[in-house]
Amino acid sequence: MVTVRAPATSANLGSGFDVFGAALSRPADVVTVEKAAETTIEVTGVGAQYIPEDPEKNTVGAVVKALDAPARIHIDKGVRPASGLGSSAASAAGAAVALNRLYDRGLSREELVPIAAEGEAVVSGVAHSDNVAPSILGGFTVTTAEGTRSVDAAIPLVVCLPDVAVSTRDARRVVPETAPMDDLVETVGNAATLAIGMCRSDPDLVGLGMDDPVVTPERARLITGYDEVRERAFDAGATGVTVSGAGPAVIAACRDRDRRGVAAAMLDAFDGAGIEARAYQSRIGRGSTILDE
Fold first, then answer.
1. 56-70 pLDDT, tens per residue?
2. For labelling alongside 56, which of 68, 133, 232, 281 has CA 20 to 30 A away?
3. What is the E.C. number (predicted)?
4. Residue 88 marked in a binding site
5. Can you give the residue range of the structural domain that contains 61?
Protein backbone atom coordinates (compact mmCIF):
# COMPACT_ATOMS: atom_id res chain seq x y z
CA MET A 1 0.00 0.00 0.00
CA VAL A 2 1.24 3.50 -0.87
CA THR A 3 -0.23 6.83 0.27
CA VAL A 4 0.59 10.12 -1.46
CA ARG A 5 -0.28 13.72 -0.64
CA ALA A 6 -0.94 15.59 -3.92
CA PRO A 7 -1.18 19.38 -3.70
CA ALA A 8 -3.70 21.74 -5.21
CA THR A 9 -2.34 23.89 -8.00
CA SER A 10 -2.98 27.18 -9.74
CA ALA A 11 -2.68 27.16 -13.53
CA ASN A 12 -2.11 30.09 -15.88
CA LEU A 13 -1.33 32.65 -13.14
CA GLY A 14 -2.87 35.21 -15.45
CA SER A 15 -0.35 35.72 -18.24
CA GLY A 16 0.72 32.07 -18.71
CA PHE A 17 -2.41 30.53 -20.22
CA ASP A 18 -2.03 26.74 -20.57
CA VAL A 19 1.72 27.09 -19.84
CA PHE A 20 2.34 28.26 -16.26
CA GLY A 21 1.42 26.40 -13.10
CA ALA A 22 2.28 26.47 -9.41
CA ALA A 23 1.95 23.92 -6.62
CA LEU A 24 0.19 25.27 -3.53
CA SER A 25 1.20 24.36 0.00
CA ARG A 26 -2.50 23.89 0.79
CA PRO A 27 -5.06 22.41 0.22
CA ALA A 28 -4.27 18.88 -1.02
CA ASP A 29 -5.70 15.45 -1.87
CA VAL A 30 -4.50 12.24 -0.21
CA VAL A 31 -4.47 9.19 -2.49
CA THR A 32 -3.97 5.64 -1.18
CA VAL A 33 -3.45 2.68 -3.53
CA GLU A 34 -3.24 -1.06 -2.93
CA LYS A 35 -2.69 -3.81 -5.50
CA ALA A 36 -5.83 -5.58 -6.71
CA ALA A 37 -7.01 -7.76 -9.58
CA GLU A 38 -9.49 -5.09 -10.68
CA THR A 39 -9.52 -1.35 -10.13
CA THR A 40 -12.02 0.15 -7.70
CA ILE A 41 -12.19 3.77 -6.59
CA GLU A 42 -13.60 5.23 -3.38
CA VAL A 43 -13.85 9.00 -2.94
CA THR A 44 -14.35 10.84 0.35
CA GLY A 45 -13.83 14.40 1.48
CA VAL A 46 -14.92 17.76 0.10
CA GLY A 47 -17.20 17.49 -2.93
CA ALA A 48 -16.93 13.69 -2.99
CA GLN A 49 -20.60 13.37 -3.93
CA TYR A 50 -19.90 15.04 -7.27
CA ILE A 51 -17.01 12.79 -8.29
CA PRO A 52 -17.71 9.53 -10.17
CA GLU A 53 -16.18 6.39 -8.73
CA ASP A 54 -16.46 4.53 -12.03
CA PRO A 55 -12.83 4.07 -13.23
CA GLU A 56 -13.95 4.91 -16.77
CA LYS A 57 -15.17 8.33 -15.64
CA ASN A 58 -12.63 9.22 -12.95
CA THR A 59 -9.28 10.85 -13.81
CA VAL A 60 -7.49 8.14 -11.87
CA GLY A 61 -8.86 5.40 -14.13
CA ALA A 62 -6.91 6.75 -17.11
CA VAL A 63 -3.73 6.74 -15.02
CA VAL A 64 -4.32 3.13 -14.00
CA LYS A 65 -4.65 2.12 -17.65
CA ALA A 66 -1.55 4.03 -18.73
CA LEU A 67 0.56 2.37 -16.05
CA ASP A 68 -1.17 -1.04 -16.33
CA ALA A 69 -1.50 -0.95 -12.55
CA PRO A 70 -4.90 -2.15 -11.25
CA ALA A 71 -5.53 -1.19 -7.64
CA ARG A 72 -7.97 -0.43 -4.89
CA ILE A 73 -7.80 3.35 -4.74
CA HIS A 74 -9.04 5.70 -2.03
CA ILE A 75 -9.07 9.44 -2.72
CA ASP A 76 -9.58 11.76 0.25
CA LYS A 77 -10.45 15.06 -1.41
CA GLY A 78 -9.05 18.21 0.11
CA VAL A 79 -9.31 20.10 -3.19
CA ARG A 80 -12.89 20.93 -4.09
CA PRO A 81 -14.05 19.98 -7.60
CA ALA A 82 -14.78 22.84 -10.04
CA SER A 83 -12.66 25.20 -7.95
CA GLY A 84 -9.90 26.36 -10.29
CA LEU A 85 -7.37 24.69 -7.99
CA GLY A 86 -6.59 21.59 -10.03
CA SER A 87 -8.88 19.18 -8.20
CA SER A 88 -8.92 16.51 -10.90
CA ALA A 89 -5.20 17.02 -11.48
CA ALA A 90 -4.37 16.44 -7.82
CA SER A 91 -6.12 13.07 -7.87
CA ALA A 92 -4.44 12.06 -11.13
CA ALA A 93 -1.03 13.24 -9.97
CA GLY A 94 -1.30 11.49 -6.62
CA ALA A 95 -2.38 8.25 -8.29
CA ALA A 96 0.43 8.42 -10.84
CA VAL A 97 3.10 8.85 -8.16
CA ALA A 98 1.56 6.21 -5.89
CA LEU A 99 1.03 3.57 -8.58
CA ASN A 100 4.50 4.16 -10.03
CA ARG A 101 5.94 3.32 -6.61
CA LEU A 102 3.47 0.50 -5.81
CA TYR A 103 4.25 -1.34 -9.05
CA ASP A 104 7.91 -0.27 -9.17
CA ARG A 105 7.52 1.12 -12.70
CA GLY A 106 10.69 3.20 -12.28
CA LEU A 107 9.41 6.25 -14.14
CA SER A 108 10.78 9.69 -13.32
CA ARG A 109 8.53 12.47 -12.07
CA GLU A 110 8.86 14.17 -15.46
CA GLU A 111 7.76 10.97 -17.22
CA LEU A 112 4.69 10.78 -15.00
CA VAL A 113 3.42 14.22 -16.07
CA PRO A 114 1.98 13.18 -19.49
CA ILE A 115 0.53 10.03 -17.91
CA ALA A 116 -1.35 12.07 -15.30
CA ALA A 117 -2.41 14.50 -18.03
CA GLU A 118 -4.34 11.67 -19.70
CA GLY A 119 -6.55 11.70 -16.64
CA GLU A 120 -7.31 15.38 -17.22
CA ALA A 121 -8.75 14.53 -20.63
CA VAL A 122 -11.47 12.52 -18.90
CA VAL A 123 -12.99 15.60 -17.26
CA SER A 124 -12.02 18.47 -19.56
CA GLY A 125 -11.61 16.81 -22.94
CA VAL A 126 -8.00 17.97 -23.20
CA ALA A 127 -4.86 16.20 -21.88
CA HIS A 128 -3.25 19.38 -20.64
CA SER A 129 -0.40 19.40 -18.12
CA ASP A 130 -0.48 22.87 -16.56
CA ASN A 131 -2.03 21.51 -13.33
CA VAL A 132 -0.65 17.97 -13.15
CA ALA A 133 2.93 19.16 -13.74
CA PRO A 134 3.18 21.32 -10.59
CA SER A 135 1.15 18.79 -8.57
CA ILE A 136 3.75 16.13 -9.38
CA LEU A 137 6.93 18.21 -9.56
CA GLY A 138 6.19 21.06 -7.17
CA GLY A 139 7.30 24.67 -7.47
CA PHE A 140 6.56 26.93 -10.43
CA THR A 141 6.31 25.05 -13.72
CA VAL A 142 6.44 25.97 -17.39
CA THR A 143 4.93 23.34 -19.69
CA THR A 144 5.39 23.41 -23.47
CA ALA A 145 5.31 20.87 -26.30
CA GLU A 146 8.95 20.11 -25.45
CA GLY A 147 8.19 19.17 -21.85
CA THR A 148 8.01 20.73 -18.40
CA ARG A 149 10.57 22.77 -16.49
CA SER A 150 10.23 23.69 -12.84
CA VAL A 151 11.85 26.00 -10.33
CA ASP A 152 11.42 26.42 -6.59
CA ALA A 153 10.04 29.81 -5.63
CA ALA A 154 9.34 31.29 -2.19
CA ILE A 155 6.24 33.32 -3.05
CA PRO A 156 3.48 33.88 -0.45
CA LEU A 157 -0.01 33.42 -1.89
CA VAL A 158 -3.61 33.81 -0.86
CA VAL A 159 -6.26 31.69 -2.58
CA CYS A 160 -9.87 32.70 -2.05
CA LEU A 161 -12.45 30.12 -3.10
CA PRO A 162 -16.08 31.29 -3.38
CA ASP A 163 -18.94 28.88 -2.86
CA VAL A 164 -19.84 28.79 -6.54
CA ALA A 165 -18.73 26.44 -9.32
CA VAL A 166 -17.19 27.15 -12.72
CA SER A 167 -16.54 24.10 -14.88
CA THR A 168 -13.34 23.89 -16.92
CA ARG A 169 -15.37 23.24 -20.06
CA ASP A 170 -17.44 26.41 -19.54
CA ALA A 171 -14.36 28.47 -18.76
CA ARG A 172 -12.64 27.31 -21.94
CA ARG A 173 -15.66 28.27 -24.04
CA VAL A 174 -15.20 31.96 -23.19
CA VAL A 175 -11.53 32.06 -24.21
CA PRO A 176 -11.17 34.35 -27.27
CA GLU A 177 -10.03 32.65 -30.47
CA THR A 178 -8.08 35.73 -31.58
CA ALA A 179 -6.47 38.71 -29.86
CA PRO A 180 -5.06 42.08 -30.95
CA MET A 181 -1.30 42.21 -31.46
CA ASP A 182 -0.91 44.84 -28.71
CA ASP A 183 -2.59 42.50 -26.22
CA LEU A 184 -0.35 39.61 -27.24
CA VAL A 185 2.78 41.71 -26.83
CA GLU A 186 1.61 42.86 -23.41
CA THR A 187 0.86 39.30 -22.34
CA VAL A 188 4.27 38.01 -23.46
CA GLY A 189 6.00 40.81 -21.57
CA ASN A 190 3.99 40.10 -18.43
CA ALA A 191 4.66 36.37 -18.64
CA ALA A 192 8.39 37.03 -18.92
CA THR A 193 8.22 39.35 -15.91
CA LEU A 194 6.37 36.73 -13.87
CA ALA A 195 8.91 34.02 -14.78
CA ILE A 196 11.81 36.25 -13.73
CA GLY A 197 9.98 37.01 -10.51
CA MET A 198 9.58 33.31 -9.77
CA CYS A 199 13.26 32.65 -10.38
CA ARG A 200 14.13 35.49 -7.98
CA SER A 201 11.35 34.69 -5.47
CA ASP A 202 10.26 38.31 -5.88
CA PRO A 203 6.53 38.80 -5.11
CA ASP A 204 6.53 42.27 -6.66
CA LEU A 205 7.68 41.02 -10.05
CA VAL A 206 5.38 38.00 -9.86
CA GLY A 207 2.41 40.21 -9.10
CA LEU A 208 3.29 42.65 -11.85
CA GLY A 209 3.51 39.77 -14.32
CA MET A 210 0.06 38.36 -13.52
CA ASP A 211 -1.81 40.90 -15.63
CA ASP A 212 -3.42 39.43 -18.74
CA PRO A 213 -5.65 41.42 -21.12
CA VAL A 214 -6.85 38.43 -23.17
CA VAL A 215 -8.17 35.44 -21.18
CA THR A 216 -8.60 36.66 -17.61
CA PRO A 217 -11.16 39.42 -18.33
CA GLU A 218 -13.45 36.89 -20.02
CA ARG A 219 -13.18 34.34 -17.23
CA ALA A 220 -13.55 37.01 -14.55
CA ARG A 221 -17.06 37.70 -15.84
CA LEU A 222 -18.05 34.20 -14.68
CA ILE A 223 -17.11 35.07 -11.07
CA THR A 224 -19.60 37.27 -9.20
CA GLY A 225 -17.78 39.96 -7.22
CA TYR A 226 -14.39 39.43 -8.91
CA ASP A 227 -13.64 43.12 -9.58
CA GLU A 228 -14.33 44.11 -5.98
CA VAL A 229 -12.33 41.16 -4.63
CA ARG A 230 -9.40 42.15 -6.83
CA GLU A 231 -9.54 45.79 -5.78
CA ARG A 232 -9.82 45.00 -2.09
CA ALA A 233 -6.88 42.57 -2.29
CA PHE A 234 -4.67 45.26 -3.82
CA ASP A 235 -5.77 47.73 -1.14
CA ALA A 236 -4.67 45.19 1.49
CA GLY A 237 -1.20 44.81 -0.02
CA ALA A 238 -1.46 42.19 -2.77
CA THR A 239 1.16 42.59 -5.50
CA GLY A 240 -0.94 40.79 -8.11
CA VAL A 241 -4.40 39.24 -8.40
CA THR A 242 -5.90 36.96 -11.05
CA VAL A 243 -8.27 34.06 -11.67
CA SER A 244 -6.81 30.73 -10.60
CA GLY A 245 -7.03 28.33 -13.53
CA ALA A 246 -10.58 28.18 -14.84
CA GLY A 247 -11.92 29.78 -11.64
CA PRO A 248 -13.84 30.55 -9.54
CA ALA A 249 -10.89 30.65 -7.12
CA VAL A 250 -9.02 33.96 -7.10
CA ILE A 251 -5.30 33.95 -6.34
CA ALA A 252 -3.20 36.82 -5.02
CA ALA A 253 0.57 37.14 -4.72
CA CYS A 254 1.75 39.15 -1.74
CA ARG A 255 4.43 39.56 0.92
CA ASP A 256 4.41 37.44 4.07
CA ARG A 257 3.42 40.35 6.26
CA ASP A 258 0.34 41.06 4.15
CA ARG A 259 -1.09 37.55 3.72
CA ARG A 260 -3.57 37.69 6.59
CA GLY A 261 -4.86 41.12 5.62
CA VAL A 262 -5.21 40.14 1.95
CA ALA A 263 -7.13 36.99 2.89
CA ALA A 264 -9.50 38.96 5.13
CA ALA A 265 -10.09 41.61 2.47
CA MET A 266 -10.91 39.04 -0.23
CA LEU A 267 -13.32 37.21 2.06
CA ASP A 268 -15.01 40.47 3.00
CA ALA A 269 -15.42 41.44 -0.66
CA PHE A 270 -17.06 38.14 -1.55
CA ASP A 271 -19.29 38.48 1.51
CA GLY A 272 -20.32 41.92 0.28
CA ALA A 273 -21.41 40.28 -2.98
CA GLY A 274 -23.54 37.82 -1.03
CA ILE A 275 -21.19 34.87 -1.58
CA GLU A 276 -19.66 32.64 1.06
CA ALA A 277 -15.97 31.93 0.49
CA ARG A 278 -12.95 30.28 2.06
CA ALA A 279 -9.43 31.68 2.03
CA TYR A 280 -6.20 29.67 2.13
CA GLN A 281 -3.03 31.42 3.24
CA SER A 282 -0.67 29.40 1.11
CA ARG A 283 2.60 29.61 -0.80
CA ILE A 284 4.29 27.85 -3.69
CA GLY A 285 5.01 24.41 -2.31
CA ARG A 286 6.25 20.88 -2.87
CA GLY A 287 4.95 18.37 -5.36
CA SER A 288 3.30 15.03 -4.58
CA THR A 289 4.83 13.49 -1.47
CA ILE A 290 4.82 9.83 -0.43
CA LEU A 291 3.47 9.71 3.11
CA ASP A 292 3.41 5.99 3.78
CA GLU A 293 4.23 2.68 2.05
1. 999 999 999 999 999
2. 133
3. 2.7.1.39
4. yes
5. 2-151+285-292
